[in-house]
Amino acid sequence: MLINRFLRGPVWLLGTLQPLSLPFGLESPPVADDVRACAQAMLQKAKSLGKCALIVVVSPLMPLPDHDARAVIQAEVQKLDPYVICGATVISDPGLAGSAKRAVVSTMQLITRPRHREKIVGTSMDAGRFVASELLRVDPSSPTTTAIAAMVDRATKSAWGGT
After folding, report:
1. pTM of the entire structure?
2. 3-class DSSP state for residue 59?
3. C-beta of residue 117 within 8 angstroms of C-beta of residue 86
4. pLDDT-derived band at 119, boundaries 50, 70, 90
5. Distance of alpha carbon 127 from alpha carbon 86, whole angstroms
6. What's residue 26's pLDDT?
7. Other CB atoms closer than 10 Å to residue 118's CB: what's the count?
8. What's CA 84's distance to the chain center, in Å?
9. Looking at the domain covering 4-160, what would its CATH class be?
């Protein structure tokens, strides 16, 4: 499987492989305008796919979003929600930094209340397992756990230059 990288911003990279959409948080702090641009690109791609699974991969080097960026994320997720089958957020940071990021993402999910199922995970394999099981509910020919995890790993390596 090849990832189709189709749009890059200063702090994000968005790629797709039907039925998946993969935004990657790069290393710079996420700011509202960049988050909005990424979300709008995701919405456009999701609309073109009809329905998609969303796997968000957050760089261990990316700091937490500020208040303005979080507000944009919450607003844009509501627009994207009708086009999303399920979502997984991969936060692989160990220790306190990872706990803080997971707490922020979890709180944002609670506030946003997406209609699709969401899960915060620590590895691409966990994301693959969750997304594959959700996709199987709507399409028996969906990618396998291993295929999704491998795709996320390859795309992450490409997005982060081997990190």
Report:
1. 0.83
2. coil
3. yes
4. very high
5. 11
6. 60
7. 23
8. 11
9. alpha beta
Nearest Cα neighbor of 131 from 142, 108, 24 is 142
Give 50-108 pLDDT, tens digit per residue: 888 888 888 888 888 888 988 998 898 889 899 888 989 899 888 888 888 888 888 88
Residues 6+ apart with CB under 8 A from 118: 86, 87, 88, 89, 109
Look at phi and psi of residue 162 and say left if phi exceeds 0, alpha if psi is from -120 to 50, else beta.
left
Domain residue spans in the chain? 4-160
Do β-strands 4-8 and 84-91 pair in parallel, antiparallel, or remain unpaired? unpaired
Beta bridge partners, 14, equal: 7, 23
Query: Which sign does the torsion angle of CA 136, 140, 143, 145 carry?
Result: positive
Helix (H) or strand (E) holding 156: helix 145-160
